[in-house]
Amino acid sequence: xxxxxxxxxxxxxxxxxxxxxxxxxxxxxxxxxxxxxxxxxxxxxxxxxxxxxxxxxxxxxxxxxxxxxxxxxxxxxxxxxxxxxxxxxxxxxxxxxxxxxxxxxxxxxxxxxxxxxxxxxxxxxxxxxxxxxxxxxxxxxxxxxxxxxxxxxxxxxxxxxxxxxxxxxxxxxxxxxxxxxxxxxxxxxxxxxxxxxxxxxxxxxxxxxxxxxxxxxxxxxxxxxxxxxxxxxxxxxxxxxxxxxxxxxxxxxxxxxxxxxxxxxxxxxxxxxxxxxxxxxxxxxxxxxxxxxxxxxxxxxx
Length: 302
Fold this sequence. Notes:
This protein is an all-alpha fold. Helix content is 76%, strand content 0%. The protein is globular, with a radius of gyration of 18 Å.
C-alpha cells in the first residue's frame, strides 16, 4: 500500500508541478500542444511498441475492444437521454461530453507503473475500441444531431488514420495476433523513449489543467460526473466478479473504467460551437476524480 501511495504521489506531484510551472510562466499556454504532440506522436507509440514486443495476443482479447466501444456508446445514449427534454444544444453537449476515456495521456502511465505488460496490452486493446468513440464517433453523432452535417464514417476513419498512437496500437495488436516479432534494436529504442511517457503525460496534464466553467453550472458538472463515475463503479464491479480473465487484465480494465473524460472533448465541443468553458471544467475535474478513484482501487487491489 505504501509503494502505491508513493508512486501515485509522484504522479500527482508531476501534475501539480506542470500546473505551477505554467502559472509562473515557465510554460506558456501554447506549450500544451507541443507536449501533447510529443506524447501522442512519440513517447506513447514507443510505450506501445516496448510493451507489446514479444507478446502473443489471444484473439479472444479483441473482446476488450468491443467492451470499450460498447461503454462509449452507452455513455453517448445516457448523455443524450438526460437532456432529452432540453434543446438539441444540450443533447449534443451531453452526448459529446459524457463518453470517451483519456487513456494514452492519463491511464496508461498508471497501468504501465502498477500493473505491468499484461495490463498495458489490455489497456491498449481497450483503447482501440475507445478511439472510435472519443476520436470522432461521438463528435460525428453530436454534429448530426445539431444539424452541422451528416454523420460520416469517412470523417471518423480520416481522424483515426492521422493518429500515430492509434495506428501504432493497431499495428502492434495485429503483429501480436499474427505472432510476428519486431527487430530487437527497435524494441531497445522504444524502451528508452517509451520510458519517458509517464512523466511527459503527467506534466502535460498539469500544463493543460484549467477550470473555466461558470459557477452557475456547478449543478450540471455534478450531475454529469456523478453519472459518469456511478456507471464506472457498476462496470468495475461486473468486471471483477464476472469477467473470466487473469487478475492483471481485470485490474487494468477496472482502472480504465475510472479514466477521466477524453482530452479531445473540449476541442470537439469548441468545433460544435458548444460551451467550451463548461466542457473544460468537466474534463479537468474528472482528472481529479479519476486520480482519487484509481489510487483507491490500487490500494485495495494490490
